[in-house]
Protein 1
Amino acid sequence: MLLYNIVKPLGRIGLALFYKKVMLINEHNVPKDKAVIVASNHPTAFIEPTILGCWLSRRLHFIVRGDLFTHPIYRKMLLSLHMIPIYRRIDVKEYASLKKNFDTLDYCYDLLGRKELIHILAEGNTIQEKRLRPIQKGAARMAFGAIDKYGEDLDLYIIPTGVNYTEADKPRTEVMIEFGTPIRLKDYIETYKLNKNRAIKQLTGDLTTRLKPLIVTIERVEDEELTEHLFTMYRNEFPETIWPVTERTYGRLKAEKQTAQYVNELSEDENSALTFKVNNYFKALKKNKTTDIGVRRQNYASFTNTLFTLLGWLPSSIGIVLNYLPIWYGKSTAQHKVKQREFKAPVMVATFLGGFILYYLMWMIAAMLIGQTWFWVFVLLLPFLGVFGLLYSEFYQKWKAAKRFKQLDSSIRQQLIQTRKEIVDLAFWK
C-alpha cells in the first residue's frame, strides 16, 4: 500500500503532463462504500487502470496479465500497486499457471467482500479502435462468485465505464471517461438461483447495452479517416482551455459521440459527397503547408501572439534542451522497442515518468554536492521551464499555421475558408 500511495500522486502529475485533458464524467455513479466492479473497454495496454487509479478517490485494484508476475521482484512490486494477476491461455505456456486463477478469483471475492473496488477490462484484450468489442463474461462471473462466497447480503455493483481517447497512442491529446448507471447485482439473484449460466449471460448482455452508449463509436472502419477529420475541425471550432487539466464536463465527449453518430447515419451518397469534400480540403491544407486551425484561428498570428512567440523562444528553448534527455528516452523506447500500437502510449508514459524522476534526482544530488543557492534555484526551475517549453511548442505550432495561412494568396485563403464553411454547414455542430 505504501508504494501505491507514493506512485499515485506522481502518476497523476505525469499523466496530467502527458495528456492535455483528463475528463471524468458522472464520477458520482461510483458508490463510495459498496463493493464495486468498474468494467471498462480496453483501447490501450494499461493506461485505463492507471488513470482511474490516479484520479478516483477510492482505492483501486485492477486485473492485469499474469505473465508480468514471473520475476519475484516484479511480482512483489506489482502486487504492492494493487495489481491482480490473471493468467490467459494465450499468455502462458504451462497449464499449471492457469490453475493460479482460482487463487486470483478467490482473492477478488475477498476484496469485494471487504467492499473494495476492482477494475476489470471487460473486452478481455486490447485493440485501439473507436467501437466496442464483444464483452467477456469475466465481470459477471466475478460478481456472482463473490455472492456465492459472501451471500446475497453483499450489496455489489458493476459500473459500466467508457474510456475514450482523441488519439490513444499520442501524447498531449485528450482522455474522456464516462461512468454509466450502476448495475446492481441483487437484481439478478433470482435468475442466478434458477439458472447460473442464464444469469451470467443476461448480466453480460446488460453490461454491453449499458457500456456501448458511453463510447465514441465509428461503426465502419472505412469511415475512420472522415470522422477523425471532423473531430479535428470540431476541436478547432471549440478548443479546450489549458487549465484545469482535469474536468468533469460532458460537452467534448457528447460532441464526439454525436459527430461519430452523424457519420454512421449518413446515406451512401451523403457519405461519398462529404468524404470527397473533406479529403480535398485536408489535401489542400497539406499542399499549402498549413492546418485547419490556421484557417479557423487566424487570430493566432496577431501582433500580441507574434510578440509572445519571439519573447518566449529563448526560455522555451532552454526548457526543452534541459529536459530533452528523458523526453528522448521515452519517445525512443516507445518507437523502437514497442511493436504493438496499443502499448506505445503506456510505455511512453511509464518511461517519461521514470526517466524524469531519475533525471531530477540526479540534478538534486548535483545541487547538494555543489551547495550553491543559485544552483538550487536553477534545479527547482528545471521542471517549470520544461512545462513552459511544452506549452510554448503547442502554441508555436498554432501560430505557425495561422501565420502560414495569412501568407497565402488571397484567392487560396478564400477558397479554404469557403470549403471549410461548406463542411461545417453540413455538420450538425454548426
Protein 2
Amino acid sequence: MPFIFRGNDVTALLDNPLTAANSLFSILEQEEPALVADLSALWKTHVRGTPLVAGTAYRPALGAFAKISSFWDNTYSDQRLAGLLYGPNAAAATQAVTGAASANQFLREFEAARDEAFYVFFQLSSVNELAGVSFLATYYHHDISALFVQRPHSFVREVVSRRVIETAQIMLRILYGNMSMGWGSFYSTRTLSTTLLLAKMHHHALATYRTPGTGRRCYNQSSVAFTLLTFSYVVAQAWVDKGFAYNEQRWYLFFQNGECRGGLPTPHPTNLQRRRIDMRLLNGYNVEPEANLIQWIPAFIVTQLRNAPRWVRYWTGR
C-alpha cells in the first residue's frame, strides 16, 4: 500500500536520513554551510565537555541548546534563515517541502503555529498528555522501538525520566524561540537553528543505528515524521472545539503501511495498547515531574504578549 501524503506517494522517501537532499536540513546546509558547521562544532564541543551519566550511554544535551539562546546577534535568527531558504537558489526546493510560497508566508504560518503550540503545551492537561501518551506512543514505530532497544539506558527508569524531561525542555525552547530571558526576549527568535541543532545532535548520535531485519536507518524521515505527528496530536486536540478537526487518517497511515508495530486495526492515539509496544521499553518508561519547568512561566508570558495581535484576531473570529 503506497504511503500518500499531500497527494504524493512518499513511500520511497521514508527510510531516507534527515540529511537527505530533499530536506530543509540539506537546503540550509547548501545555502549556509558555515552555520551548519558552527552548530555541528557546538554539539561536538558539548559532547567533549559533558560526561555520560554513570553506567549508561546517556549524555545530557540541554546545555548545547542553552548556548544558542545566549547568542544575540542575527546569525541564528529565524528571519535570516527563512531568507536563505527562500533565496534565488533554494526557493523552489523549500516551497516543495513547506508548501509556503515566500519567506514572509512561511514565517507568518510558522510563527503562528509555534506560538499557539506553546500556549497548548504549557497547560497542565497537555503536559500530562505528552508524558502519558505522546512520548510513549513513539515506541509504536518499528524504527524508534529498534533504536531504543539498542540503547540499554532506555530500560533504566531514572534515566528515561531525565531524558523525557530534557526533551520537554528542548521542545519548550523550540516553541519559545530559544531567546535569552530578560532583554534577550526582544531579539529575533531562533527556532529554526535550535531545531537544526536537534537534528545535528540526533544525526551524530543515532545515524549508525539500523533496524534488525530491514537494515533501515533507525533515525529516518518516517520515524521523525511519526514523532512529530504524535506530539502534534496534543495540539490538534486542543483546537477541536474551535472547529479545527484533527485528521486522524494521517496518524493511521503509519500503521496501515506497516511502519508501526501491531498492524491493523489501528489504535486510537490516546488509547495506548501495551501489546504493540516492546515490553522492555514499556517497563522502563517513567516520567517524574520536575519543578524546574516552572522557570518557563516568564517565557510563556513573553510568548503570549508577542502573539497578542494574533490572539485578538483569533478570539474575535477574524
Protein 3
Amino acid sequence: MDEEIHFARIIIKEKTPETDKIFDKDFIEVIYKAKSYWAIFKCPCGCGSLISLTLQNTHKPYWNLKTSIEKRPTLSPSIWRNNGCFSHFWIKDGMIIWCGNSGIEPWIAEPEYYKSPI
C-alpha cells in the first residue's frame, strides 16, 4: 500500500499563528530572525488537537526538521502524544508513518522508558 502525502509542504511563519488559522494538513515552521523555533500542526489522527514541537536544541526534548526537495517535512524523533488520543507516529517526507503502539499510553506500552504522569 502506498503511503499518502499528509503534509504537502512546509508553511513558514515568523510567529505562531492563531489556532483557528491552522488547518488539518498544514505543517507550520516558525522561523524568527533565521532561527527555527517550532513545528506546529494538527494531530493526523483527526482528533483536532494542535501539536507544537520545539526545534530548539536548548530545550529537551526537541525535534529535528528536515525539508525535502519537494518542501515536505521529515521530523525526528517520532511524535507520541502523552495525553488525548496517544497517537504515535513519524513524519517522513510529508507522510504519516503510524507506530504499532499508537493509541496506547506510553507508560503502559513502554514502561521501561516512560513514567506515568500520575
Protein 4
Amino acid sequence: MDRRGIVLSKAGGRYRVFVDGTTHEVSIRGRLKQGADQVLVGDWVVIREHAEGGGTIESVQERVSVLRRRTPGRSHGLRSVAANVDQIVVVGAASDPDWNPHMMDRFLAVAAANELPILLVVNKCDLAPDGSRFGAVYEAAGYEVSYTSVPDRTGLMDLRDRLQGRISLLTGPTGVGKSSLLNALQPGLRLRTRAVSRRSQAGRHTTVAAEMYPFAYGGFVVDTPGLRDIGLWGLEPADVAQAFVEFGPYVGQCRFDNCRHVQEPGCAIGEAVTRGEIAPSRLDSYRRMLEETHSAARPWLTGRAR
C-alpha cells in the first residue's frame, strides 16, 4: 500500500516519515540513492508499506524550495538542509551570547536570497532589558520582528501564531536558544539544550543535523544546527544589495549607474545613512559582504527549486 508523507529526519540509510499523524521508519528505494540530495528533510514522499513490516520511499514529489549551506570546514562543497520551507525564522540573542549585528545581517541576507518570508526573533530578552533596540534597526528596515524570553514566556504566543500552519525553518548563531524556544512552545519535543561557553561567549552546538517536528498547532518546525560562522557562497555582488530590503527605495537614485554603494560620490544609500534613514551597521555589513562575494567560492545556498 502506497501512502504520502513528509520526511522528518534521516540518519544513515533510515528515514523517519510522518504519515497521517504517525511516524514510520523506512529505508529508501535503491534507484533514489544516487546523490546526497535525493531525499531531504521536508520532502513529500510516497512510501510503500511492506507486509512483513517497515517500508521504502518509492518517490519524491516536486519541491517548492531547497535550502543549502556550505559544507563545514574548508571544503567548497554544499550540504542540503531542508526542502519545501515556507518561512525562515532567524533567531538571535539579546545577550549570552552578545548580539552580533554583522552575523545577524549575514543570516538575513542569505535568507533573503531564497525569496521566502523572514521572521527575525530577538530571544533572551530577559537578560537585556533594552533588547528591543537590537530589533528596532530591523523593524525600521521592514522586517517582521518578534521579541521572546523563555523564562518570562514573553512573546511565546506571538511566535506560536507565526509558526502555526507553516513549515518554518529556524536558523541563527549557535547558543541563541532555538531549541529552548521550541521546547517552550511544545514541551513534548524535549530538544537538547546547552549553556553558552563562559570563556569564549560562543554557543555550543546542540543540534547536529536538521530535523523536522510536527507542530502541535499545525504545520512543522525544522530545527537546524547552530552556526558559529556563515558563508555567503551563492550570492553574486549584485545580489547583495537586493538582500538588504531597506536599500530598495534608493536603488537607481545614485549619481552613477554602476554605483556599488562603497565610497562613490552621490551614493543615494550612503546619503540615506547620513540622514538616519538606514542604520550605519547595515551599510557596514553590506560592504563587508560585497567584498567577500568577489573572492568567495560559489554557490552557498539556492532557494526556490527550478
